[in-house]
Write a structure and sequence with these properties.
2 copies of one chain form a homodimer.
Chain A (H helix, E strand, L loop, with lengths): L14 E13 L2 E9 L8 E2 L2 E3 L6 H13 L7 E8 L9 E10 L13 E7 H4 L10 H18 L13 H12 L5 H10 L4 E8 L7 E6 L17
Parallel strand pairs in A: 1-6
Antiparallel strand pairs in A: 1-2, 1-4, 2-3, 2-7, 5-6, 8-9
Chain A binds a DNA duplex through α5.
DNA sequence: CATGTTTAGGTCATTGTGACCATAGCTATC
DNA sequence: GATAGCTATGGTCACAATGACCTAAACATG
């Protein structure tokens, strides 16, 4: 099938391909990322992004889904999953040329990750902690995490992925918290409500309500069909 | 360096990695994409996206730049180049598992591609032609092209990449033509001018003018420093 | 029943937008 | 040299969207 290329395999070496995942969720009013911590020497205590090799006969998306389910024990089809970028600097691994296809996954407060074997444990780590230069050592994982965070923040503006963080049914306050926690600054509840409900098919009212311990009951919503958000949610004044 | 993964190379096969480029430019008031046509049998006359294998010790971006320069004879550093997505379906190539990292390149009306050898020729093909199902046969190249087009169209909205299509210095009409040709519908010249000049550092006036054969001379501009466009250019009413 | 808390919804001045219109400044032609 | 034709530039105006507020509704608690 590679029929009209001059190059064949000359000049290339076999390469190994992995997928790495940046899995975000919201816990305790903070954005968290799933990291894998090695429990035994060598490299005890070091964190990496979850990931692994793509297997024979497996698509990239399938590999990402499999890793996602292995690490979180959750059905990946209920999450938002998209490709971030492929990192392939020569020199990432001395033994073999390796590429990693980075994925971004967004989901509602996920179950505690499956109990780790004694060799590796999955942990939800606050993103602010994970970004600290002392936490992520491996490869270019810090860079991947930063890019995933930038992508997630940007996509909240002009797409409806924010709803992927919310378990259905959800309140508008739940949805607003997604924006506030991801962007790091508060939004006006009233103006937020106006934008979300006026946007075309971002959310759909269920007609039901949720009574928390305090305050007026909140109307419950489900995700709409729209993928793009128009008009977009702006964060221009707080752009960093 | 792959130190905290359970999997080693078990269950994986060596893979070959290529880069493929979607190179857009504007010629004769239409969006064109660079395609490679095979001049000799077998597969004579078939078109593919330009691309090739990543070489030893070469970054992905470097490989994309090299292919870009090989096919167009242009200094790739003057173009906008960004990664699109990695395509890696098993079964793309029966001989060996192959992945292709697709890149999107945007540039001003580029020189006629380098004269092809008798085996392969580079051609500027109108995108409307290239999207026709009879043109692109190889692999998933039609899908890659479509995704590149979608990405380019979307990025015109909220980034300043449109200016990458314009050779400096350019007029606001030049810039507007980029939007019109890429999006496929006309924009009001007056409102376009207002948005572009009010946006923060999208373009900078040079103080000079260009006299075409007809009409009032147009002020000349250069690209500003801004990467994101605020407020964004909207195309909501024409969304397809 | 008063108070606190959260949701729901309204007001209003300001800004951005889309659809126009008018003028400026050039070339080509009569 | 006047005029027509053309494009660039700038302005108007009604309307929509936005941000900063404010008020009321609907619950729980003491």
């Amino acid at each position: 099938m590679i029929h009209d290329r001059e190059q064949k395999y000359d000049g290339t070496v076999p390469a190994a391909v992995t997928v790495d995942l940046v899995i975000f969720t919201i816990r305790d009013a903070a954005l968290h990322v799933l990291l894998i911590r090695r429990g035994k020497p060598p490299f005890e205590g070091e964190f990496t992004l979850p990931g692994g090799f793509v297997r024979v006969g497996e698509n990239l998306d399938e590999a990402a889904l499999r890793e996602l389910e292995e690490e979180t024990g959750v059905d990946g089809r209920t999450l938002h999953l998209e490709q971030l970028r492929t990192f392939g600097d020569s020199g990432r691994d001395p033994r073999c040329r390796t590429y990693t296809v980075a994925y971004l996954a967004l989901g509602p407060d996920l179950p505690i990750p499956v109990a780790g074997t004694d060799a590796r444990e999955a942990h939800w780590v606050p993103v602010s902690t994970a970004l600290s230069p002392t936490v992520l050592h491996a490869f270019d994982h810090a860079e991947i995490l930063k890019e995933g965070l930038d992508r997630a923040r940007a996509k909240l503006e002009y797409t409806t992925v924010a709803a992927a963080f919310c378990r259905e049914p959800f309140t508008l306050a739940d949805l607003r918290h997604v924006y506030e926690v991801t962007w790091g600054f508060p939004l006006d509840p009233s103006n937020f409500r106006r934008k979300v409900t006026k946007a075309v098919d971002f959310v759909r009212a269920t007609g039901e309500f949720r009574s928390l311990e305090v305050g007026r009951p909140a109307a419950l919503y489900r995700r709409g069909q729209a993928e793009n958000l128009f008009p977009p949610m702006t964060r221009a004044d707080h752009n960093s």
